[in-house]
Write a structure and sequence with these properties.
299 residues, mainly alpha, Rossmann fold, two-stranded parallel sheet, 11 helices, elongated, binds NADP nicotinamide-adenine-dinucleotide phosphate, SDR_fam, NAD(P)-binding protein, oxidoreductase, NAD(P)-bd_dom_sf
């Protein structure tokens, strides 16, 4: 029979001594939690996910499971537990850079053929980067030694890296194919109230909306300018059709910014865009080649 001491001790236990504070990072660990769409299992899933573990939630109701997953991801948007592509790359790097790279690579033969029979500067590739490329990425845009994130970084830094990657892809693509009549245009669309902020909490979204976000159609205007404006075509002339070099030949590198203007890009991205023989760091070329390796299995 349960003693009165045991009964009371379990009814009114002492403070927990083994909590999330005692748990180390759980990168690479996998946990399956049954009944985790609510209650104790959900709380456990939150703790383990906050420590970057990969979590599988087994539950009776599909809709409750999805709602639990989305609430956990919202709470711990910095976790790397679920933020990987099917191929195992960091999700933003995979989506924003590797996927885009492959898609563009597959379309390039068609772009080149089309450019031969189209009016000057009308065939363009628009690379949707972000102010995060300059504001949130490490020096040089991407750290070639840490693209697998063995040294863990904040989610915003990873976003910045992926957006710097877009800019570097634009530069490298321009160098490779500008001379064949395809214009390569990097841009920052502006801060738009889109689904991009899906992983942010409601309060953060509310504050962002009040302070910096504009209706998404404004972002469409930035893209419209980059894709169709004759001014962009004029900027590309004089140096093949490599858009980001100014027509004055001074090597000043620019991007299209909200809502359809030109602006100089920051110094370390300029250096990253140039080869070592041009006085740069050669990061854009290295990043291009890294992407080439990643997409090799997809002819
Ligand atoms: N919004 C901004 O403030 C802002 C600022 C600077 C730069 N940008 C850049 O602008 C681009 C478009 O952003 P947005 O604001 O329009 O974003 P969004 O509302 O989040 O997404 C637009 C599209 O991306 C797709 N997508 C999202 N995650 C994906 C994934 N993992 N795999 C495949 N497709 C995925 C979405 O498909 P689903 O509907 O299926 O998810 C949707 O079709 C992005 O490259 C972003 O980095 C946006």
């Amino acid at each position: 029979m349960l003693s009165i001491f045991s009964f009371l001790s379990q009814m009114y236990p002492p403070k927990p001594r083994f909590t999330e504070k005692e748990i180390p990072p759980l990168h690479g660990k996998v946990y399956i939690i049954t009944g985790a769409s609510s209650g104790i299992g959900l709380e456990l899933a939150k703790i383990l996910y906050s420590k970057h573990a990969k979590i599988y939630i087994a539950a009776r109701s599909e809709s409750k499971a999805f709602s639990a997953i989305s609430s956990i991801k919202t709470l711990f948007s910095d976790s790397t537990g679920g933020s990987k592509t099917a191929q195992g790359y960091e999700l933003q790097l995979g989506t924003n850079c590797i996927g885009t790279f492959l898609f563009t690579k597959l379309l390039t033969p068609l772009l080149l053929t089309t450019a031969k029979t189209s009016s000057s500067s009308s065939v363009r590739v628009i690379w949707v980067s972000s102010s995060a490329a300059e504001g949130l990425s490490p020096k040089g845009g991407v750290d070639m030694q840490n693209l697998d994130y063995k040294s863990e970084k904040a989610g915003m830094t990873k976003y910045g890296v992926s957006k710097a990657g877009n800019y570097l892809h634009a530069m490298e693509f321009g160098k490779k194919f500008g001379g064949e009549g395809v214009l390569s245009v990097p841009l920052n669309p502006g801060n738009l109230d889109s689904e991009l902020y899906r992983s942010q909490g409601g309060i953060v979204r509310w504050v962002l909306r009040r302070l910096v976000l504009y209706p998404p159609v404004f972002g469409a205007y930035t893209l419209l300018f980059a894709g169709l404006s004759g001014d962009v075509g004029k900027m590309g002339r004089g140096v093949g059709s490599v858009f980001p070099f100014r027509a004055d030949g001074m090597g000043l590198m620019i991007a299209v910014v909200p809502w359809g203007r030109f602006m100089k890009i920051c110094g370390d991205l300029v250096a990253a865009s140039k080869a070592k023989t041009e006085g740069g760091t050669g990061i854009a070329r290295s990043f291009w080649e890294w992407n080439e390796e990643r997409v090799k299995p997809y002819p």
